[in-house]
TrEMBL record:
Enzyme class, UniProt record, top EC level: oxidoreductase
InterPro entries per the UniProt record, alphabetical: Ccp1-like, Haem_peroxidase, Haem_peroxidase_sf
Domain Plant heme peroxidase family profile positions: 130-345
Pfam families the record matches: peroxidase
EC number: 1.11.1.-
Protein's recorded name: Peroxidase
Signal peptide positions (record): 1-20
Domain of life: Eukaryota
Protein family (similarity comment): Belongs to the peroxidase family.
Keyword field: Heme, Iron, Metal-binding, Oxidoreductase, Peroxidase, Signal
């Protein structure tokens, strides 16, 4: 049996889809749903766990956070995006935010644990629909907003590099002309370069153990084993303090890359003074101005992608996801009773009405007509998610209806959400056994077991084929980087096992040797011979997020 927490994720994609949103004609809609889950549904062990509180440091190879080192995950995530993106080029249209940093950690310009720390943590959330590059972007968006900064728009669709890209990340020793040239190639003019660096250097600091040429040994002390000297007095807040300190020559005076006595590595001082302090002084005019400028340059940083990559619209619950179905699954039993289960997610964004106590969910049948069949979703008392957009509430529901009526969609509070029931994995007749340990972002998920895998699919067709093919999308290690890649090399053939009403049921039992972490990242696509996948991205386990 599946545990209660493991809702089946979205598993409905038409072979010939015509409707929007829940029958995506491109797979980006699936990516958006998955990232929304990480971004909006707060949960223990979720994406935010490593950066909550903002002082936290989580080494993903260790069982628990360690705050004695002077390290900080939120700052590491922002620095990771910088080192990944800045070697991209607007002239060649190559590189940018593409997770190539994973292949480049041996370079002197990428010294420090930050990059592998970030990629290893993100690897728990990686799967066939969510690229490492999108997770690096999400890392910036969540750490900036979670720690007092602006909401940088979160778009999805980035594609991971399969090899190292060019080198050229500016180092503290790099000349000002080479530094500006590198940023210019990435699409940032000289003023933008000051702004982006000042924004980045609002959080975290410089560590003695990796930059002894900048920071003296005296920085090492109790709860600061790596000897961090922060950029400012509010190390865990994304704010204008570093800039103000520098402009007014107070506090940390802009941090170690300004104040170090080693002139060769005064890279922030060289940069800020390059235009006679004009840009940095402008940034200090107000907190609101600083935040809005940072929002702009951070967005451009995470949106530098190869010309071939098409990004989605931003995930913005104020416009699109304030009320939306999530973790939906569809089932049918041998008597021909169907059920649509999952929850409605309500994000109480600023200015939105208080969450209703209940929601009425009405079925739209396969023929597109609204039916008299409805269910009540009651706000979950235990669910008081505190995402960066406002409290997130969930309304679990189950709609029951006959297979002859079928599913075309649901209507809730005046909104219509389209679904279809052409082909779907039947959750009650599909599972991975044994059940993996509860999802967590630690090495406890590394245990490898042999899982018995049962995949059972219902196919609405008048001309059923002899069999269907399931393709497993499994995260596997990739040479040269700690980022996994997806293997699609294993398939299984589902045989007909019966019919229920208009559906033909196909099933297979197979086995797989996987780590629990891989099980959480695995998804299954199912297709009839010669057709595009009718089921895409069926995830047996929906990790906490
Ligand atoms: C001229 C360009 C830059 C140079 C030479 C530079 C150099 C450095 C150095 C030497 C450190 C110390 C790293 C450590 O000890 O862990 C650092 C930290 C950091 N940098 Fe930069 N940086 C530059 C621009 C940027 C930009 C554009 C961003 C992001 C938008 C950024 C974000 C960060 C962050 C967040 C940290 C703190 C890391 C931590 O505390 O773990 N930097 N930078």
């Amino acid at each position: 049996m599946l545990p209660l927490y493991s809702f089946f994720s979205f598993c409905l994609v038409a072979v010939n889809s015509v409707q929007a949103q829940y029958i995506p004609t491109d797979t980006q809609a699936l990516t958006i749903k998955e990232i929304e889950h990480y971004y909006l549904d707060a949960a223990t062990n979720g994406f935010f766990s490593a950066i909550t509180p903002c002082t936290n440091y989580q080494d993903p190879t260790a069982p628990a956070p360690d705050n004695t080192l002077g390290m900080q995950t939120a700052a590491e995530w922002i620095r990771t995006a910088f080192h990944d993106f800045v070697t991209g080029s607007i002239f060649t249209g190559l590189g940018g935010l593409d997770a190539s940093i994973g292949f480049e950690t041996g370079r002197r310009e990428n010294v420090g644990a930050a990059f592998n720390d970030a990629l290893l943590f993100f690897s728990f959330f990686y799967n066939a629909q969510v690229s490492m590059a999108d997770l690096i972007a999400l890392g910036v968006v969540t750490s900036v907003a979670n720690c007092g900064g602006p909401k940088v728009p979160m778009k999805v669709g980035r594609v991971d590099a399969t090899a190292a890209g060019p080198s050229g990340v500016p180092e503290p020793e790099t000349s000002i002309s080479d530094t500006l040239n590198e940023f210019n190639t990435a699409g940032f003019n000289d003023g933008d370069t000051v702004t982006l660096t000042a924004c980045g250097h609002s959080m975290g600091g410089v560590h003695r153990n990796i930059f002894p040429q900048v920071v003296p040994a005296s920085a090492i002390g109790p709860n600061n084993a790596d000897g961090r000297v922060p950029f400012d007095e509010t190390v865990a807040v994304f704010d204008v303090t570093t800039v103000n300190d520098y402009v007014h020559w107070t506090g940390a005076k802009g941090g170690p890359l300004v104040t170090t006595t080693n002139k060769t590595v005064q890279s922030d001082l060289r940069l800020y003074t390059y235009d006679n302090n004009q840009t940095i002084t402008q940034l200090s005019q107000s907190s609101a101005y600083f935040q809005s400028q940072c929002q702009g340059v951070m967005q451009r940083m995470i949106e530098l992608v190869p010309y071939s990559v098409r990004l989605s619209a931003p995930i913005d619950p104020t416009t699109t996801t304030n009320l939306k179905p999530a973790a939906i699954y569809l089932s049918v039993d041998w008597k021909g009773n169907m059920a649509l289960s999952g929850f409605m997610r309500y994000v109480q964004v600023a200015g939105a009405a208080a969450p209703p106590g209940t929601l009425k969910i009405t079925l739209i049948g396969r023929n597109g007509q609204t039916t008299a069949i409805s269910a009540t979703g009651t706000m979950s008392a235990s669910d008081t998610g505190t995402g960066i957009w406002g409290p997130t509430r969930s309304y679990p529901f189950t709609l029951s209806f006959p297979a002859t009526t079928g599913l075309g969609g649901i209507s809730v509070s005046g909104q219509t959400f389209s679904f279809q029931d052409t082909m779907f994995v039947v959750p009650g007749m599909s599972n991975f056994s044994p059940t993996p340990p509860t999802f967590s972002t630690t090495s406890s998920l590394n245990t490898v077991s042999t899982y018995t895998v049962n995949i059972t699919v219902a196919y609405l067709t008048t001309a059923p084929p002899a069999s269907l093919t399931a393709t497993f999308n499994i995260p596997v290690p990739q040479a040269g980087t700690v980022s996994p890649t997806i293997s699609t090399s294993t398939t299984a053939t589902l045989q007909k096992i019966g019919t229920v009403g208009p559906f033909t049921i196909f099933s297979v039992i197979t086995s797989k040797s996987l780590s629990a972490k891989q099980v959480y990242g695995t998804s299954v696509d199912v297709a009839a011979p010669g057709q595009a996948a009718g089921v895409k991205f069926f995830k047996p386990f929906n990790k906490a997020a």
